[in-house]
Known about the structure:
Layout lengths: L1 E5 L17 H14 L4 E3 L2 H16 L19 E5 L18 H13 L7 H6 L5 H5 L10 E6 L6 E7 L1
Parallel strand pairs: 1-3, 2-3
Antiparallel strand pairs: 1-5, 4-5
Amino acid sequence: MRVVLVPGVLALLPEYAGLEDPVAELRAACVAAVGWLGADPVVLADPQGERVARALLTQAQAGGAPATGSGGGVVAGAPPARVLVVGNGSARRTEKAPGFLDGRATAFDEALGASLRAGRPEVDARLAAELWASVTGIERMADLGDLGPAQVDYDDDPFGVQYWVLRWQT
C-alpha cells in the first residue's frame, strides 16, 4: 500500500498560480508525491481537500504519472492500494497566519507531526478545530493501521500554517 499526505491549501490550485508561484517548493513536493502514488487513489479529505486533491492528481498526470482521483473512503476488508490524504496542521503559528497567533499551535503541530512521521497519527480534534487545523483526512488515516515511518518530502510553515508532504509504503 502507498499513502501520501499533502496539505489542502488553496494556493495549490491552478487558478491561484500567478506569474510567480508563492508555493513553488510545496507544489513541486506535492506533485512529485502524488505522481509517486500512482493511479486511482482513494482520497481522504474534507471538501476543500478533495478539490486540492483533484488539482494535484491532474498536475501529476500532466507530468507523466497516470493518476485519476476518486473521493471514496476506505472500504471494509483489504485496505486500498493507494491513498491520498489531504490535511494540514494549525493555521495559527504566527501573527500573520490566517487565524492569528495562538501559543498552543507549535506544540500541537510538533505532536501531530511526530505521530505522522511515525505512521500512527494522533489528533486532538477539539484543539485542531481551535487552531484551524484541517485534520479530517488525517483522522481517517487511522483506518489504514500502522503505516510505519514516513518519508518526509516537505515540512514547513509558510504563511503561519503547518504543511507536510509525507509518503508511506507498506
